[in-house]
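Q: Sequence in, structure out?
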Amino acid sequence: MTNTKKIKVLFRHRSMEMGGVEKVLLSMLNNLDRDKFDLRLALNLFQGELRNEIPENIPVKILAGGKEDFPKNKLLNKAAFIARGFKLLLFQKFPWLADNFILHNDADVEIATGYTMFSDVLNSSNKNSKKIGWFHTDVSILRGKPYLPPIIENLKKFDYIIFGGQQVKDALYADYNEADFPPGKVVLNPINTEEIIKKSEAFPVSYDKKTFVSVGRLHARKGFHKLLEAHAALLNEGFSHQIVVIGDGEERERLGERIRELGVTESFILKGTHVNPYPFIKNADYYILPSESEGWPLIIADALILQRPIISTNVGSIFQMLEHGKNGYFVRPDTEEMKEAMKTFLTDQELIEKLRSNLLYSKDQFDNRKIYREVEEIITNLVK
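A: Exactly. Output:
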């Protein structure tokens, strides 16, 4: 396609904190065909652990600075936060300012990477671009929430929807009339298996007892409070183990308080965010995901590739990756079920050996080339 004009594709994203959506975005920027597409990225905030992972050959436009670059002085820091808020509010109210003076937005296709960016893309002053909404959220979890109706109304306005998992699509159409929405397709999240394996060997990690590891943002819907209660109950029954959590978020302070109340500061360990969590996963005995809701979580794919026996809540589209009793173990997002599942992993060696045997070829289920081709075809057909 060297003699054909490239399709200009603008990805709109909030910031680069560690998360599954951010990893999907980076995969797309790294792997979509650069002979066919002129890829660009616009960030509302230049912040997050992954901001330095953006490919160097991708033009990046930034609406506002990141907290990492704010002054350390408390008063100046607060003033910078306030000023940034006003700046973003101005761009929200007058999107043509950002489009004309910062983004120079002449894209053929604009992609909202998640529902937090729907309004930014739909309100773009570039009326000639096709708009794609990338949707990762199970709406059944958001029923009754005041912010769900605006999300649904915005979804209807896109030219195309990419669903991050089958359950994401099924949940939407179970509650709403499919005919009210634009065309859409389920596209699974790409996984760089070789990179994950390589990064898992980047530094040594050792544990002195049976260890469950979990990676995720410390958010109420991620279920870490229930996992903590299950952990404490299992210790009280005499089953020695520890849980290591990689991640940070708004629930960290409350979670820390409860850890101290239960007296498990030595066995329920909050490691904070790590750009490379893979050595922690590889060297653990088991992986556990306690979430109340997910789309198609990359971290489950990561744990499969690193061949860790997995306990997971059966939410979102995880069923597309795990089969109960074969390469994983499903539970409901319930404290008692988590406790009993962990007890089973600690005591049923026959089950663990079966899971490990079935995990040997897990990476073979992830075909990235097919995923990138699907996205490229969606973009190309939309422009045509």
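Residues 74-93 form the longest helix (20 residues).
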